[in-house]
Amino acid sequence: MAKWGEGDPRWVVEEREDGTNANNWHWTEKNATAWSKKTLTSLLVGLTPKHEAAGEATLTEVDSITGDCIANCRKGKLIFFYELVIKMKWKGKTADGTIVNGTLEIPNLSEEQDIEDIDVNVTLTSDNTSDRRKVKDLVRKAGADLIRDQLTKWLDQLKTQYAADLIKPTKGKTAGGGAGAGAPPAKVGVKLSETVKVVPKPKPVAAPKVSYKTIKLTDDFKCRGEDLFKALITEDLVKAYTSSDSKVDSKVGGEFTLFGGNVSGVFKEIVPYTKITQAWRMKSWPSGHFSDVTLEIEEKKDKVVLTLTQSGVPESEVESVKGGWRSNQWARMKGILGFGSGIMGGF
Questions:
Q1: At what angle do helices 235-242 and 225-233 cross, to 10 degrees?
Q2: For the chain, what is the total number of helices (H) and then of strands (E)?
Q3: pLDDT tens, position by position, 5-20
Q4: Are 221 and 341 in contact (CB under 8 A)?
Q5: Mapping DSSP to helix (H, G, I), strand (E, B) and coil, where does residue 25 land?
Q6: Measured at the alpha carbon of residue 293, what is the angle toward residues 117 and 336, in degrees to the nearest 5?
């Protein structure tokens, strides 16, 4: 046993307000996704780029913000992971007052890219005339600059306000690092005339690239196409055959979670009885990464054929994902809902 004062400081529990995570050594995490969606909406809606010769435009609403934003603390350092896609609508008018409508997308808001390099893709939904294109260009240039300024504000608030409580106070210090009440005065170790040499910290090593694959599976079911379609999007039925806590909001843009949150996503397209497309991810996947799932239902004379195409699956997870579809969903539909055919295929 080490003598008092000689032990590894990572394992010394100081007198702390919360009595845990001494020296902020252990990994703590805070999900900032909901906060980011709310904050980004308030910062972006209402932005109005103007130009006397081109006209003006206003960002009127957020269609969707998808992805994840996570704040972490490890060894007393704050680390942020975020990968968000923002879709918005804008409305404007030309210099002569003609109304213009359009959309924009920010497809790559990620910690891997500087804010000034973030793309802003702008489209027209009105007729494509030369005057309206001037307003579109106004949004694409001046509007994009305003957007990047607001994204910088969001990132600053994320780091200085939202994540501030991840760093816990230690004895004699507050969470921000200042001296607490009754703390002894700090010793001055450097004269004012001296120069303090700051040694730069090495840049973190980038995480290895993840390879993604596409999988295709087919299976036969003894039921009507309508029955299989409803089983895939109806919350009560999903809960029944997965035997888990599941939530399903069966509309375009609606979210779903299966198996207690281990699988989640968003419905992108719902074509009654024939086709469903989803943005789909497992909780263990890289933060913010979603695969694209297409489920196609074909009703034949004596069976229904379900074909799945799923792109963007991490290579290391391919067999696990295949097994999940076959065993945890389709086989259970057959047994619990009575859709059994005893035939299962895939390639």
A1: 80
A2: 7, 14
A3: 454 444 344 444 444 4
A4: yes
A5: coil
A6: 145
Mean pLDDT of the chain: 80
Beta bridge partners of 90: 59, 102
* pTM, rounded to two decimals: 0.45
* 8 A C-beta contact, residue 138 and residue 120: no
Q: What is the dihedral of CA 110, 112, 118, 121, to 10 degrees?
A: -60
Structure tokens at 21: 């995570």
Per-residue DSSP letter, 141: I
* Burial class of residue 197 in the structure, from the number of CB atoms within 10 Å of its CB (0-12 exposed, 13-18 middle, 19+ buried): exposed
Q: Which has the closest alpha carbon to 327: 246, 243, 228? A: 243
List the single range of 107-121, 164-178, 305-319 with lowest mean pLDDT. Answer: 164-178
pLDDT tens per residue across span 71-83: 777 655 677 788 8
Q: What is the DSSP letter of 244?
A: S
Rounded Cα gap, residues 313 and 324, in angstroms: 13
pLDDT in tens, 154-206: 988 888 777 666 655 544 444 444 434 444 443 334 344 344 444 455 555 55
Instruction: Tell me the pairing of strands 50-51 and 55-74.
Output: antiparallel
Say how far apart CA 78 and CA 61 lie, in whole Å. 32
- Residue 169 backbone class (left: φ over 0; alpha: ψ -120 to 50; beta: rest): beta
- Report phi then psi at 314, rounded to 5: -55, 135
Task: Map out the domains of the chain with their CATH numbers.
Answer: 9-166 (3.15.10.20), 212-346 (3.30.530.20)
d(CA 247, CA 255): 8
Q: What is the DSSP letter of 22?
A: G
pLDDT band (50, 70, 90) for residue 347: very low
Tell me the two tokens of residue 254: 């609606």
Note the maximum CA span of the chain: 90
3-class DSSP assignment, residue 64: strand
CB 199 within 8 A of CB 243: no
